[in-house]
Design brief:
By secondary structure, the chain is mainly alpha-helical. It has a domain at 10-58. The protein has helices at 12-19, 23-31, 49-58, 98-109, and strands spanning 10-11, 38-40, 44-47. Strands 1-3-2 form a 3-stranded antiparallel beta sheet. A hairpin with a 3-residue loop joins strand 2 (38-40) and strand 3 (44-47). Helix 1 (12-19) crosses helix 2 (23-31). It is elongated, with a radius of gyration of 23 Å.
Length: 120
């Protein structure tokens, strides 16, 4: 008879800490189907190590910057850049995700609070 080892089940609070997010954020991501999970004993949610690593892999973004020998950025257009290219092409800028767009809109549209005069 072969015995199959039981995988490590990670509780929600530990998984959230491993990912550097609040438990409520992890729960929202679970409900949205953005991270895998395992249910045990009814409504107890647990995560396997591969759920965590898969989530990290899906949300990882690799840097696509261009290294220069001069130490200056190739995207700012200084004459010292070898290729003479200034700026980035429009297709290299990633579009804002929905949460980023909403945050940017709130920042732009929120009225600034009037500062109090310094004598009061």
């Amino acid at each position: 008879m072969t015995v199959t080892p039981i995988p490590q089940l990670i509780p929600e609070h530990e998984a959230a800490a491993m990912l550097g997010m609040a438990v409520k954020t992890l729960q929202r991501k679970r409900r949205a189907g953005l991270i895998g999970y395992t249910m045990v004993c009814g409504q107890k949610y647990r995560y396997l190590p591969h759920h965590i690593s898969d989530y990290i892999a899906r949300n990882s973004v690799e840097c696509e910057g261009v290294a220069t020998t001069t130490g200056k950025s190739a995207t700012i257009g200084f004459p010292s850049v070898q290729d003479g290219h200034s700026g980035t092409s429009p297709t290299t800028t990633a579009p804002l995700g929905k949460p980023s767009g909403i945050l940017l809109a709130r920042t732009i549209l929120t009225k600034r609070r009037a500062s109090l005069p310094s004598g009061t």
